[in-house]
């Protein structure tokens, strides 16, 4: 079945909103690592249930699965430390802002995937809008910026390998399911080995919030990874990183931060980029 590109972009925008929401939950939790582990545990359950209904991924996808999971472990590690070093409104935009051009470069080098002129224009507009949004945030500590950029590199790694993986299997959702299983079981094992009592206590106290956030995270990731099987990965990632704009809105309405003219101009640039991608 051919899926209209406008529908794909719409779904990716929804996944961007979900991504901004669950990241805000992780940041504002008193135990960011345990909160992340709870969220990924829901992903583990989601992946296990999905895997029972789908065929195993082709053996050729095994390397992509392992590589994608390793980059996700690195992402989890750097993400939680970025949130310790910097505010949500600073760490999230920097980490996600470096990703579109990195992914576009990686897709060109490793997936032999080039963009049409209008798609490239869209990616550049979204990237420029993101950097207009975060320019003020670049005055923070160098160590925090390094952590955030490292998080962006990890995102690039698992996104590129994930895109290759979903294209190497007959059913993209089977790859998504097993990647959820690997990434979820890894972080859950880390909690069980290092702080099992605190993890259990946290799970009991935060079950509802963690379950809802986990469903958002799993759904958002599944949509984004599936979208890379039918669209250029750089275009999908540029659209998904509009989650930075949603994060900014969350900061304004949930954290009472001022919506400055700079943010408004950045928003217009970002949405111009999305429009170019949708029309490409």
Structural class, by secondary structure, is mainly alpha
Give the distance, in angstroms, between the N- and C-terminal Cα atoms: 20 Å
The portion of residues assigned to helices is over 70%
Question: Largest beta sheet, briefly?
Answer: none
E-strand count: 0
Evaluate the radius of gyration: 18 Å
What order do the SSEs take from the amino end to the carboxyl end, as H and E?
HHHHHHHHHHHHH
Supply database-style keywords:
single chain; 280 residues; mainly alpha; 13 helices; 81% helix
Overview of this protein structure:
The structure is a single chain. The chain is mostly helical and 280 residues long. The chain is 81% helix and 0% strand. The chain is built from 13 helices and no strands. Helix 1 packs across helix 12, helix 3 crosses helix 8 (172-194) and helix 4 (88-97) runs antiparallel to helix 12. The longest helix is centred in the middle third of the chain and has 27 residues, at 142-168. The two termini are 20 Å apart.
What's a quick, concise take on this entry?
The protein is mostly helical and 280 residues long. It contains 13 helices and no strands.
Produce the secondary structure layout.
Blueprint: H1 5-27, H2 32-51, H3 62-85, H4 88-97, H5 99-110, H6 117-134, H7 142-168, H8 172-194, H9 196-205, H10 207-227, H11 233-240, H12 243-255, H13 261-279
Helix pairs in contact: 1-2, 1-10, 1-12, 2-8, 2-10, 3-4, 3-7, 3-8, 4-6, 4-7, 4-12, 5-7, 5-11, 6-11, 6-13, 7-8, 8-10
